[in-house]
């Protein structure tokens, strides 16, 4: 059996797919079957007809089928199947012709049917060996066998051994061709349909196997994940059990502490009630003292300002050369003390102004110009002490804030840096600026005496606190700076190291709207300040009365006197008619005073500014203001007036 199995599986290793392997195995099996049947046929042929040339040719022809096994073993698996598919009907047909040619005179009707039936049987071999995917090989083998089958009578006639009807008894012999063809198609179509079903089921089985393998692979992966999760859950369960034990202990401890805490809370609640009562009494006392202090500060800063100014005026009339030598020193002390008193009163006045929230308008401040102005004020001290003032404001050259306050902050920080310089090195003061999303940042750093922040940080910005007593000072400067920073919505911070450096960092909040800062908002008029072009303006919502007209311009003049804005915009589109006496009042009282306080440009907004009927009226206004060195231009829109003022400001900066 092992030998027979080895013969059947010859060449199976060369097959690339299951159908190919099946074809190889079938071809080997059919070869063995044909050889075996040839031996059986030889035996029975010998019994019936005795020994002759045909008897001995049958086993030889059967042996040719064994060539298939040799071809498959050599790897010629396609050629071997073609070989047995075409060889079988061909050699049977050849044996039929040869036997009739040798024994033609002795032929019987049966001789023309036996070989033909064998050829018909051989025609089904290709349908067993080839699959429908091998269309070319199947077509060649099947058509070759069918051609041999249909050429039975023509080939016998060709070789001179046709069916002799004059000697043989079967009538209508050629009708057997119809029977043979019908039988052929019954056999091949049935076998072909069976093979189609088999291959279809085989393809479905292959797909199912692939799907099954994929599902199995996914199940294996899932099982691996589940095993890993189980292991992790097991580990977590052990950890959870340990944590639960710890949690039980912790809860027990918490309950104990909760009881202690409850008792402590009871004690603290009683203490808190007592403290709140004391705090309310203290707070009421503080409010009373604070009001008294504000009233006192107001009285000192305002009521004493007149007498001190008078005293300073009287001191100016006294000539130093008329004072006796023994009284000169006393006079000098009186004068310096009076000046110091005047300075203190001014500082207190600023503090009160800040507390009363007078300064609200944000102006456009050029830091380099402001620092140059401070440099001129402190030029005497800077030159006397050889101070190096390094300025770097390129990162934030312009900021929007209250100009007097920014000036005061910079002046106090720089003057403090000069005042508290170190005698061991050349004084260096660095002023820089930066910009953050919500703040303008100013830094002032010096290499002076420094401050011991561990000792003095809590008292840094308190009133009348000094940290170096060998220099003159009143302890107001840093307090005023902190007050101004907070009034501007900002902060001040300090970093210092004793005898090395001090650096103050000021954060000033950016204003939300600098173009339309309202100074007056009434139904009939709005006074605004535009910091981007340093301009005051009014938008009229008339008609207006004489009283309203004069009140608006009086308010505008008050603002201009404080901020000295060089530009003025007046939107008179909805102003309505103005009485001649009110216009005369404007040009006689308001415009001249505004000119003395820095007004240099007026923009007049009227959509009909270029109308010929309006030009003469505007020319009269222009002639009036020109005498006061004020430029006057009419514009049809606020945007054009804004652009003109921007250009004029740039020119003024360029030529200043």
From TrEMBL:
Record-linked SMART domains: HATPase_c (SM00387)
Entry's Gene Ontology molecular function annotations: ATP binding; phosphorelay response regulator activity; phosphorelay sensor kinase activity; protein kinase activator activity
One Pfam family, short name: HATPase_c
Top-level taxon in the UniProt lineage: Bacteria
Domain Histidine kinase: 299-512
Keywords assigned: ATP-binding, Coiled coil, Kinase, Membrane, Nucleotide-binding, Transferase, Transmembrane, Transmembrane helix, Two-component regulatory system
Catalytic activity as recorded in UniProt: ATP + protein L-histidine = ADP + protein N-phospho-L-histidine
Record keyword 4Fe-4S present: no
PROSITE patterns, per database record: HIS_KIN
GO biological process: osmosensory signaling via phosphorelay pathway
Coiled coil location: 216-292
Membrane-traversing stretches: 24-47, 53-71, 83-101, 113-130, 175-194
EC number: 2.7.13.3
PANTHER family assigned: SENSOR HISTIDINE KINASE GLRK (PTHR42878:SF7), TWO-COMPONENT HISTIDINE KINASE (PTHR42878)
Protein known as: histidine kinase
Naturally occurring in which organism (per UniProt): Chryseolinea soli
């Amino acid at each position: 059996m092992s030998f027979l199995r080895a013969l059947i599986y010859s060449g199976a290793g060369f097959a690339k797919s299951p159908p190919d392997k099946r074809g190889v195995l079938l071809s080997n099996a059919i070869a063995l079957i044909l050889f075996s049947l040839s031996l059986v046929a030889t035996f029975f042929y010998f019994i019936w007809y005795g020994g002759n040339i045909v008897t001995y040719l049958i086993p030889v022809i059967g042996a040719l089928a064994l060539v298939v096994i040799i071809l498959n073993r050599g790897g010629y698996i396609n050629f071997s199947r073609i070989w047995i598919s075409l060889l079988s009907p061909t050699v049977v047909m050849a044996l039929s012709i040869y036997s009739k040619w040798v024994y033609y005179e002795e032929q019987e009707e049966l001789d023309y049917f036996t070989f033909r039936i064998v050829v018909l049987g051989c025609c089904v071999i290709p349908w067993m060996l080839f699959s429908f995917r091998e269309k070319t090989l199947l077509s060649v083998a099947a058509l070759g066998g069918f051609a041999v089958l249909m050429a039975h009578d023509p080939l016998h006639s060709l070789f001179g051994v046709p069916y002799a009807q004059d000697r043989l008894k079967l009538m209508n012999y050629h009708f057997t061709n119809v029977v043979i063809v019908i039988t052929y198609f019954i056999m091949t179509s049935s076998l072909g349909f069976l093979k189609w079903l088999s291959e279809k089921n085989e393809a479905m089985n292959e797909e199912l196997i692939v799907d099954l393998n994929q599902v199995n692979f996914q199940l294996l992966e899932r099982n691996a994940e589940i095993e890993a999760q189980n292991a992790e859950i097991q580990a977590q369960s052990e950890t959870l059990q340990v944590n639960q034990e710890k949690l039980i202990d912790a809860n027990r401890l918490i309950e104990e502490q909760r009881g202690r805490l409850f008792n402590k809370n009871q004690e603290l609640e009683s203490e808190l009630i007592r403290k709140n009562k004391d705090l309310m009494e203290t707070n009421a006392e503080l409010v009373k003292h604070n009001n008294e202090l504000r009233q006192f500060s107001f009285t000192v800063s305002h009521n004493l300002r007149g007498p001190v100014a008078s005293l300073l005026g009287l001191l100016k009339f006294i000539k130093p050369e008329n004072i006796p030598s023994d009284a000169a020193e006393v006079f000098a002390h009186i004068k310096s003390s009076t000046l110091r008193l005047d300075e203190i009163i001014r500082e207190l006045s600023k503090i009160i102004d800040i507390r009363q929230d007078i300064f609200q308008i944000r102006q456009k401040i050029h830091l380099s110009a402001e620092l140059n102005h401070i440099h001129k004020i402190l030029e005497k001290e800077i030159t006397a002490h050889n101070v190096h003032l390094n300025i770097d404001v390129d990162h934030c050259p312009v900021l929007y804030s209250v100009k007097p306050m920014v000036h005061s902050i910079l002046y106090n920080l720089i003057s403090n840096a000069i005042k508290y310089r170190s005698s061991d090195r050349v004084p260096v003061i660095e002023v820089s600026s930066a910009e953050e999303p919500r703040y303008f940042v100013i830094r002032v750093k010096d290499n002076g005496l420094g401050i011991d922040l561990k000792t003095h940080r809590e008292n840094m910005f308190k009133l009348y606190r000094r940290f170096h007593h060998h220099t003159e000072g009143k302890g107001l400067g840093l307090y005023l700076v902190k007050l101004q920073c907070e009034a501007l919505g900002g902060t001040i911070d300090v970093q210092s190291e004793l005898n090395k450096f001090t650096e103050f960092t000021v954060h000033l909040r950016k204003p939300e709207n600098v173009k339309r800062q309202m100074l007056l908002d009434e139904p009939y008029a709005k006074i605004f300040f535009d910091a981007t072009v340093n301009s005051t303006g009014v938008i009229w919502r008339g008609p207006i009365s004489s009283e309203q007209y004069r009140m608006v311009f009086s308010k505008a003049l008050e603002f201009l006197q404080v901020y000295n804005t060089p530009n003025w915009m007046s939107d008179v589109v909805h102003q309505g008619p103005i009485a001649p006496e009110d216009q005369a009042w404007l040009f006689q009282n308001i415009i001249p005073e505004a000119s003395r306080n820095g007004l240099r440009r007026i923009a007049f907004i009227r959509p009909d500014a270029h109308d010929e009927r309006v030009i003469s009226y505007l020319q009269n206004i222009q002639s009036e203001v020109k005498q006061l060195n004020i430029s006057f231009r009419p514009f049809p829109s606020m945007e054009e007036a804004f652009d003109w003022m921007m250009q004029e400001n740039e020119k003024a900066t360029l030529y200043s």
